[in-house]
Design a protein that fits this description.
12 strands, 0% helix
């Protein structure tokens, strides 16, 4: 069974920083693109940042450009989100997603989502 497990969320003051991690568990052969999404109360889930399979291409929502940085490890099974200059409007549950996930036994999934980690920006 494939799972994506996020960590690193918490409470931070405005202007502070957090680093989110998302690690794939289980036998993984490959994960294509990975990304971070967020969902604030009463709002739809939105893309925050995405990264290609090799890490060479990244994409950011306009609201986080210049403040957030997405990266992934060399093995390609983990993705990170460095969040700087956090604002109260960044408060949300943050989810990671992997696309075209192929397990060691050859089973593939179009999408796999993590369970989410809460980020609260407040003084």
């Amino acid at each position: 069974q494939v799972q994506l497990v996020e960590s690193g969320g918490g409470l931070v003051q405005p202007g502070g920083s957090l680093r989110l991690s998302c690690v794939a568990s289980g036998s993984i052969r490959s994960i294509n693109g990975m990304g971070w999404y967020r969902q604030a109360p009463g709002k739809e889930r939105e893309l925050v940042a995405s990264i290609s399979s090799g890490g060479g291409s990244t994409n950011y929502a306009e609201l986080v450009k210049g403040r957030f940085t997405i990266s992934r490890d060399n093995a390609g099974n983990s993705v990170y989100l460095q969040m700087n200059s956090l604002k109260p409007e960044d408060t949300a549950v943050y989810y990671c997603k992997g696309t075209r996930v192929v397990t060691g036994s050859g089973i593939w999934y179009l999408e796999v989502w993590g369970q989410g980690t809460q980020v609260t920006v407040s003084s």
